[in-house]
Amino acid sequence: MRKTAVLALALAMFPWVMALAGPKVLIVDQTEGFVESMQVGVLARVLRLSPLGAEITGTTEIPKGPLPQGPFQLVVIVPPAGEWVWVCTPGLPEMLGPEMQGFLQLVKGAVEKVFRGERTARDPADDLYALGWSAYFLRIGVLGGVSGR
Questions:
Q1: I need a surface site. Which of 3, 27, 113, 127 has the fewest CB within 10 A?
Q2: Which helix (H) or strand (E) holds 29?
Q3: 3-state secondary structure 43-80
Q4: Using CA atoms, how far apart are residues 37 and 41, in angstroms rounded to an integer?
């Protein structure tokens, strides 16, 4: 009887628990070296284990259309070389809700730590490259709208 009660409670709370799902993040890992690929894996784990519990999807190529796991709230592009990591958002950071603004700051801080300061995260407010990719991802349906749609 006790197991049945716990199961009934879990099923009753299921829709509420699903509403608490964290932001969907697509990580585009274009790195070529072993160490940097491992760092991208650590970044994904940090975001997944963050207080918001991000739902992570990874790929090695820029999507050419919507992915079945999307739309995403953020797309993180880690190029093969350089000092930047581009964080694409469905709008300028000030257009995002407070929770997503906080998560964006968490992503930026995690990039700095995971890459030991060798790479810096840039969002559409910081870099035209991130802005261009964000517009592209919105157009093809990879990024959801500012409201998360």
A1: 3
A2: strand 24-29
A3: HHHHHHCCCCCCEEEEECCCCCCCCCCCCECEEEEECC
A4: 6
Q: Extract the tokens encoding 15.
A: 């829709």
First-to-final CA distance of the chain: 41
Q: Where are the domains of the chain?
A: 22-140
Its CATH class, for the domain covering 22-140, is alpha beta
Residue 17, pLDDT above cutoff 90: no
Between strands 74-78 and 84-88, the pairing is: antiparallel
Run of H or E including 131: helix 128-140
What is the rounded distance in angstroms from the CA atom of residue 79 to the CA atom of residue 133?
13
For residue 39, give both structure tokens. 């760092």
pLDDT category of residue 12 using cuts at 50, 70 and 90: very low
| Residue 18: per-residue pLDDT | 37
- Greater confidence (69 vs 17) lies with 69
pLDDT of residue 70: 86
